[in-house]
Design a protein that fits this description.
Layout: H1 3-10, E1 24-30, H2 37-49, E2 54-58, H3 62-71, E3 75-81, H4 89-94, H5 126-141, E4 147-151, H6 165-168, H7 185-195, H8 209-232, E5 236-241, H9 245-252, E6 263-266, H10 278-293, E7 299-305, H11 311-324, E8 328-332, H12 339-350
Parallel strand pairs: 1-2, 1-8, 2-3, 3-4, 4-5, 5-6, 6-7, 7-8
Length: 351
Amino acid sequence: MKRRDFLTALRHGPTAGGRAARVDAWTWVGGGGDRDADEWRRSFARVRGAGISGVLVGGGDTTVLGDAAHAEGLSFHRWTWMCNRNGDARVQAEHPEWFAVSREGKSSLTHPPYVGYYKWVCPTRPAVRAYLRDLVDRTAADPRVDGVHLDYIRYPDVILPRGLWGKYGLVQDRELPQFDFCYCDVCRETFRAQSGVDPLDLPDPPSNEAWRRFRWDSVTALVKECREAVHARGKAITAAVFPTPRLARRLVRQAWDEWHLDAVFPMLYSAFYLEDLPWIGTSVTEGLKALTAAGGGTSLRAGLYLPSLDPDSLIEAVEIARNAGARGISLFDMGALDDVHLAAVQEALRA
């Protein structure tokens, strides 16, 4: 699928009479495991039969997975981890200086926040941008890949969703220094050149608007380089993002309404935020409003978290997202789609 075909598939609005149009459905897929080509085809045929039209696949062999997805009529997008380089042994060994540094002065390579796999590179560094841009360019160059799906295209969570505070024994009613990134030499020197002040010398770095904007813009600049590389290949580029531009800016330094991607997949995991299902619709509305204000052209698919949705709640969540204007949904993840949930997806998509 060329980018123009992907965009054509997105352009459906309200039907005659004002009723919300049908949404399309995608699912994130972990590409690991020891399944062979026939097993992948059976897995993909199962979800395609329920009405799912595309898969966002991480890991595994692109030839096997891409061919299996296409054989079952699915769009195949490569789900690509960006700033979180936990599995990138080469970068960890050869470029430890690339890793983001907290306000405490500790590298995420040696002192990852929250969990051991939170090892993040700094998007301000030109060498990091070049490395990640080349990564997505090589991904997009594969003829089996219909699009590139960016994930972890942000800083570490300076504040976790409220529903996760108890899990980590935290109360994050302010930005704590051990979770506040990045204060590496390149970030400090670049910001000082722009503003005349070292961010570590600010009386209260979290409250400084210019310092917040600096980090939003660092991520956006990385996205821009990746977008240009993928579009030059004639492919679509999308991203998994935090629920709304307002929350994304505050929690992970992500100004995704300014990215001008082909589509965004906000992770509207209501239980993580101690919210009920109508919050999904409110978040879709807020996201679409921000995208329109930024110039439009980016569609929005609501990411739904299956472990916190029973089948009836899943049907309701799809309806809420559709009525709020989402062009589609995406489910995390294919492994959680048991037969009952899959039947619910099929029912929701036919409504």
